[in-house]
């Protein structure tokens, strides 16, 4: 005697939505309808890691995120090693670099999307170019707009508007207004910095440096890496990481960047160098050398006041989203029946290096285990 299949609706065919759908496709008692606003599934996933898809990091720690207590509990349920094994079981061969960042061996993000969209059964149906406006829960079923099917459980995995042009940001996740959920304001994270009193002559300069974020006299975070000087500010992975810590501050007032250009030796003796050399041509990037000749600065502490981050359309993720008080440790809503919330739609954001995609996949894996229990 066959059991009646449980019908699950997943809004969002990104990393967490696809991962969940694939896991549920392995269960004979599950039927899934996956709704996607775009023409293709996995749009952000295909763009991640510069098109190589940095899908997770072997070294995931709570302090990599804005919500360390929540992530600490998540890691007790699902680890990077479990995710690596799951991808291996699905046939995805992965490689990692010296910093623990994990990529598909193909070095092509489409490979990850193709693996996730290769479902174990025909019990998964995908609706693309479907822009949901309203959802409603009544009589123990979920209604999505005027879709002809009613669903037993609804999963929200539609991400955030980070990286979208302003036109597409408007109305994104509009359906959330139908739910009694606390949503924290969305702010750009993993974005470049707009700087005050910035010399535009540095535009196009790329150099490695040790960069420190200060608020007043307090060091917030310090990191070494390549930075790119733009027309009105700076970018690069090290800068984007600093922007994540900047967003976590209760106030963004009185913040500055201090850039040490002697990254190979933080205590490099610039005094002796300058006494022995007439200029800094052999020390700095040519554009920085020209700036120094025009207006000498402290090479260990080139300082800029932060005006703000770049706008949301340049950000990799959002700081903000559905408050974590709304869900339990299995990603199930506390105050709304038969509702799960996954990935970037939640107020969890990490630094660069595969941490945000790990959270998306891990949240989906935990929810899948709960749904199929």
Topology:
Layout: E1 6-11, H1 15-25, E2 30-35, H2 43-47, E3 56-57, H3 68-77, H4 80-89, E4 94-96, E5 101-104, H5 109-116, E6 124-127, E7 135-138, E8 141-144, E9 153-156, H6 166-169, E10 183-189, E11 193-195, E12 206-215, E13 218-229, E14 233-235, H7 237-247, E15 255-260, H8 270-276, H9 286-294, E16 302-309, E17 317-322, E18 339-341, H10 355-371
Parallel strand pairs: 1-2, 1-9, 2-6, 9-18
Antiparallel strand pairs: 3-5, 4-5, 7-8, 10-17, 11-14, 11-16, 12-13, 12-15, 13-14, 15-16
Helix pairs in contact: 1-10
Q: What can you tell me about this protein's structure?
A:
The structure is a single chain. With 373 residues, this protein is of the alpha+beta class. It has helices at 15-25, 43-47, 68-77, 80-89, 109-116, 166-169, 237-247, 270-276, 286-294, 355-371; strands at 6-11, 30-35, 56-57, 94-96, 101-104, 124-127, 135-138, 141-144, 153-156, 183-189, 193-195, 206-215, 218-229, 233-235, 255-260, 302-309, 317-322, 339-341. The protein has a 6-stranded antiparallel beta barrel with strand order 11-14-13-12-15-16. Strands 6-2-1-9-18 form a 5-stranded parallel β-sheet, covered by helices on one side. The protein has a 3-stranded antiparallel β-sheet with strand order 3-5-4. It is elongated and about 85 Å long.
Q: Give the termini separation.
A: 20 Å
> How much helix, percentage-wise, in residues?
10-25%
Unreliable stretches covering 5 or more consecutive residues: none
Q: Give the C-level CATH assignment of the largest domain.
A: Alpha Beta
Strand content: 25-35%
Overall tally of structural domains: 2
Mean pLDDT comes to: 95
Side-by-side strand order of the widest sheet:
11-14-13-12-15-16
* CA-based shape: elongated
**Discrete helix count:** 10
Taking all Cα atoms into account, the compactness measure Rg is: 23 Å
């Amino acid at each position: 005697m066959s059991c009646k299949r449980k019908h699950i609706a997943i809004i969002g065919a990104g990393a967490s939505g696809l991962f969940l759908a694939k896991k549920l496709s392995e269960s004979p008692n599950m039927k899934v309808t996956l709704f996607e606003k775009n023409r293709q599934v996995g749009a952000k996933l295909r763009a991640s890691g510069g098109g190589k898809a940095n899908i997770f990091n072997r070294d995931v720690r709570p302090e990599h995120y804005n919500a360390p207590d929540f992530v600490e509990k998540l890691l007790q349920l699902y680890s990077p090693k479990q995710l690596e094994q799951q991808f291996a079981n699905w046939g995805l061969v992965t490689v990692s670099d010296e910093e623990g960042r994990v990529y598909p061996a193909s070095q092509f993000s489409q490979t990850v999307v193709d693996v996730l969209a290769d479902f174990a059964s025909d019990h998964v149906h995908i609706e693309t170019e479907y822009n949901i406006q309203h959802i409603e829960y009544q009589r123990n079923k979920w209604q999505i707009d005027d879709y002809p099917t009613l669903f037993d459980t609804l999963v929200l995995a539609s991400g955030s508007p980070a990286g979208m042009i302003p036109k597409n940001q408007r109305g994104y996740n509009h359906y959330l207004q139908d739910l009694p959920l606390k949503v924290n304001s969305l702010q750009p994270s993993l974005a470049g910095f707009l700087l005050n009193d910035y010399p535009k002559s540095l535009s196009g300069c790329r150099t490695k440096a040790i960069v420190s974020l200060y608020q007043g006299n307090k060091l917030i975070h310090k990191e070494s890496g390549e930075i790119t000087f733009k027309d009105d500010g700076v970018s690069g992975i090290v800068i984007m990481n600093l922007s994540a810590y900047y967003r976590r501050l209760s106030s963004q007032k009185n913040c500055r960047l201090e850039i040490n250009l002697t990254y190979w030796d933080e205590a490099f003796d610039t005094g002796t160098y300058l006494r022995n050399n007439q200029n800094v041509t052999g020390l700095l990037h040519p554009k920085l050398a020209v700036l120094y000749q025009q207006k000498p600065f402290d090479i260990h502490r080139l300082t800029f006041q932060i005006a703000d981050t770049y706008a949301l359309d340049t950000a990799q993720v959002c700081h903000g989203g559905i408050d974590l008080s709304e869900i339990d440790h299995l990603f199930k809503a506390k105050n709304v029946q038969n509702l799960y919330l996954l990935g970037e739609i939640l107020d969890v954001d990490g630094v660069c290096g595969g941490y945000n995609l790990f959270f998306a996949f891990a949240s989906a894996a935990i929810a899948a285990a709960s749904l199929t229990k």
